[in-house]
Design a protein that fits this description.
Blueprint lengths: L7 E2 L3 E10 L2 E8 L4 E9 L6 H16 L8 E9 L2 E9 L4 E2 H6 L6 H19 L15 E3 L10 E3 L25 H4 L5 H17 L8 E2 L2 E2 L9 H10 L11 H9 L23 E4 L3 E7 L3 E4 L2 H13 L2 H16 L2 H21 L2 E9 L2 E10 L2 E17 L5 E7 L5 E6 L1 H15 L3 E3 L7
Parallel strand pairs: 17-20
Antiparallel strand pairs: 1-2, 2-3, 3-4, 4-6, 5-6, 7-8, 8-9, 10-11, 12-13, 13-15, 14-19, 15-16, 16-17, 17-18, 18-19
Helix pairs in contact: 3-5, 3-7, 5-6, 8-9
């Protein structure tokens, strides 16, 4: 039991509960007996754990809170000398916020949708933008789930977000600091060397959002080239995944340099390619069965049948097959056949039989087929043609105008990209890993310059 529980400090602050304890410091919930309000009391004692660095950070937190005025940051109330049975020290008093930390919410089983994460990201960026816009710049240096508080959900609002614990803040001189402050897993590489800049806080925010999405501490996630590998463990749109990867780039030069820049990119429409949102061209995934080739006029994708699906309307397919067989009379024959089926009342049984015949005829040939998707720039726009390749045989299925492209998650860990076109063959669907689909999106963005709409798991897949 903490010796300060139920004690009244400075004849005013009655200690009710201890929130945390660090060497030389304690944080309590207390009641201000003069105002009958709940407050937060931070106590620094000159005991065996005391260091001059701790005192310097404690005084800096007090001075910073006096200068900050933001609704999502605790307000400074008091700073006094104190003498206790355990020694002398200082008392810092600030406003109490009735909210749980994001860490506590996760521990109680709460999950966060992508919309919730968007909201938390926006609110956190607003706070960091305020801090980073100060003169001199204020860097928190310890953004993590336990230092971000969120109130109860009200309706569609996930709650009000707050940033607390300014005990490690630094107002840098000449863009750097010399004190190592932060939490392992949430602090970027440069902080291990005693350097912190606004982009360091953004890395920590990105790591925090990844924790909320995965439920895993960032230190427990796999890494590749110092980058957190989390995409295959979340149900997030590729665009949001890209943005989080941008925030958590290990190379500080490849991260957004301020919260304002990060927020600007975040608010960009996901259908608009943005320089910086994809800071690096995505390399081809290793051992991918999908192959790309391109010239200035043509862009070709070759996809094995197991990663390919052609979505269509059955009557349109029947008409297309008849046209391939009978030439110009195919459409007329299809119309006559449809009228006869309606008149005789046999349309549904006939369609089911035709569907079975269609799949039976195509099952064997598609099993080992390769599908070649070619994009071609023309005056009318971008044309897309589909060719089925089986051994030495090639069959052109259609050539139509490309109207729309979408990409998004499929069943974990699969992602998809859909190429929508005019005509009876409505949609080409390519399935693959996150890396494969991101690679395709990146290359198509660069070549076709056609907006790609990013879907989420809340949409039909």
């Amino acid at each position: 039991m903490d010796p300060f529980l139920n004690q009244v400090l400075c004849q005013r602050y009655k200690i009710r509960a201890r929130l945390s304890q660090k060497p030389g410091r304690r944080t309590f919930v207390a009641t201000d007996l003069q105002t009958d309000t709940t407050v937060i009391v931070k106590l620094l004692l000159f005991d065996v754990d005391f260091t001059w660095e701790t005192l310097r950070l404690f005084e800096r937190e007090s001075a910073a809170l006096q200068s900050l005025d933001h609704p999502a940051i605790p307000q400074y109330l008091d700073f006094v000398d104190i003498e206790t049975d355990l020694g002398k020290g200082f008392l810092l008093v600030q406003t109490y916020i009735e909210a749980k930390s994001l860490q506590d919410w996760i521990m109680t089983g709460r999950t966060f949708s992508e919309e919730d994460l968007h909201y938390i990201a926006q609110e956190a960026l607003n706070i960091l933008d305020y801090l980073h816009d100060r003169k001199p710049v204020v860097i928190h240096r310890d953004i993590k789930p336990s230092n971000l508080l969120l109130t109860e959900r009200t309706g569609n609002n996930p709650g009000q977000l707050y940033l607390v614990d300014f005990g490690g803040i630094q107002a840098p001189q000449q863009g750097s600091t010399i004190t190592i402050v932060g939490t392992y897993g949430y602090m970027p590489l440069e902080q291990f060397g005693g350097r912190a800049v606004p982009a360091s806080d953004l890395y920590s925010l990105g790591a925090t959002l990844i924790y909320l999405a995965t439920g895993l501490h960032p230190a427990n996630l796999p890494q590749k080239d110092m980058r957190l590998q989390f995409a295959d463990q979340v149900r997030l749109s590729p665009e949001f995944v890209h943005w989080l990867e941008w925030l958590t780039e290990p190379d500080i030069a490849k991260r957004p340099q301020t919260a304002a820049i990060a927020r600007e990119r975040f608010n960009q429409s996901p259908t608009q390619p943005v320089d910086g949102l994809h800071p690096l061209r995505v390399p081809p995934p290793q051992n991918s069965a999908i192959q790309l080739s391109q010239t200035q006029e043509h862009f070709n994708i070759q996809v094995p049948s197991k990663k390919f699906k052609l979505e269509f309307l059955l009557p349109a397919v029947i008409s297309s097959r008849l046209t391939q067989t009978f030439g110009a009379f195919g459409n007329i024959l299809a119309g006559v056949l449809l009228i006869l089926l309606v008149v005789t009342g046999l349309i549904w049984p006939a369609l089911i039989i035709l569907l079975l015949i269609y799949f039976h005829m195509n099952k064997r040939s598609k099993r080992h087929a390769i599908y070649s998707i070619t994009f071609e720039k023309s005056i009318q726009g971008t044309l897309i043609s589909l060719t089925e390749i089986h051994g030495n045989r090639e069959r052109v299925l259609f050539k139509q105008s490309l109207t729309h492209m979408t990409a998004g998650p499929d069943k974990i860990p699969q992602y998809k990209i859909k190429l929508r076109s005019e005509g009876p063959f409505h949609t080409i669907r390519i399935n693959g890993s996150y890396q494969e689909i991101r690679w395709l999106c990146d290359e198509l963005d660069s070549w076709a310059q056609i907006p790609i709409t990013y879907e989420s798991y809340n949409e039909e897949v």
